[in-house]
Amino acid sequence: MGLVESWGGNAFGWFFAHLIEAPYNLIYAILHPQLWLAWLPHISFNSKISDLEAAESLLRFIYYGASWELFFVFLFIFLVVTIIGFVRNTFMWACVKGLEGFANVVGRTAAFAGILMVLQQIVIIFMQRVFAVSEISLGLGVAFSKDVSWWSEELKFYNAIIVCLCVSYTFVQGGHVRVDLVYSAIGHRAKRMIDMIGSMVFMVPAAILTYFYGWFFLWRHLVTPKMSASDASKTIDQLLPKARALKFNVETIGFSPNGFNGYFLFKILLVAFTLLVILQAVAFFYRSYLEWKEGEGSIGKNLDKDQLGDPVAEAVAEIH
Asked: 132: helix, coil or strand?
């Protein structure tokens, strides 16, 4: 649309130009998926993308994946949903229920990584100490064989899954430890106001900053020429010439010769972590506003909390 170039001389013009262009950018991206998704059939671990259009689409995906254009698209969606929610509180409660339900599903599923981590550690100790093997094979029909050190280092990945994918689930369940200096001594409406401010002023900016750097950190280890956060300051036209040399170069280097070599998976988890935190911050803001407006009787409304089956443990979780 060109509004950013026309109005971008000052901060207010730049902000509102991006915000006005956001719905146009969203609709344009939806109607032209080939411009940023044509690279999907060409995914491989180490090969050049021979199709120039596919390579250019991948560059657009990387560039716009952490761009101001994408930020303002999500800001526009957030503002529209929020305004509708202010008018119709039932709609906002539905958003809270949906976002918290999504966090619960992801978290409860990812929590099984803890069981896998324990079982795998038992197998490693048993096979290494009892049978003194140096390699463990798993699989039906096609065996997947790796050195014992590979399986040992892979345990870090299970731990990372729990930390990154259970973060919002733990928040919904009230599992994060919080130090209350003044929070416990103030009234209901003041608490909800602090929650609203905290979610938007602390949770969202920190998660967005982590996402912007984490996104390029991820792609630096997946493609060459390497992408960096400084590329976000360039225009897409300045980056497109890189497409001629673009290739997938997934780094599979371990810390030890036979150790776990899928460390790019940790970088994917970092991006997923930030997105989950942002979604939970929005859900927490909506819940805090609704509980502030509707009073103490709405505390915990539509909240799907796990039942621990232990009154003492549930009391401790409630305090935290």
From this structure: coil
User: Do residues 26 and 80 make contact, with C-beta atoms less than 8 angstroms apart?
Assistant: no
Residue located via tokens 């509707």: 294
What digits encode the pLDDT tens for the residues 22-55? 999 999 999 999 999 999 998 888 788 888 999 9
3-state SS assignment for residue 254: coil
Q: How far apart are CA 32 and CA 54, in angstroms?
A: 13
Strands (DSSP E) along the chain, which ranges? 46-48, 135-138, 144-147, 223-224, 247-249
Ranges of H-type helices in 88-203: 89-110, 112-129, 148-165, 167-172, 188-198
Q: Is the pTM of this model over 0.70?
A: yes
pLDDT tens digits, 57-113: 999 999 999 999 999 999 999 999 999 999 999 999 999 999 999 999 999 999 999
Instruction: Say how far apart CA 160 and CA 273 lie, in whole Å.
Output: 10
- What are the backbone dihedrals phi and psi of residue 9, each rounded to the nearest 5 degrees, phi first? -70, -20
Residues paired with 46 in a beta bridge: 249
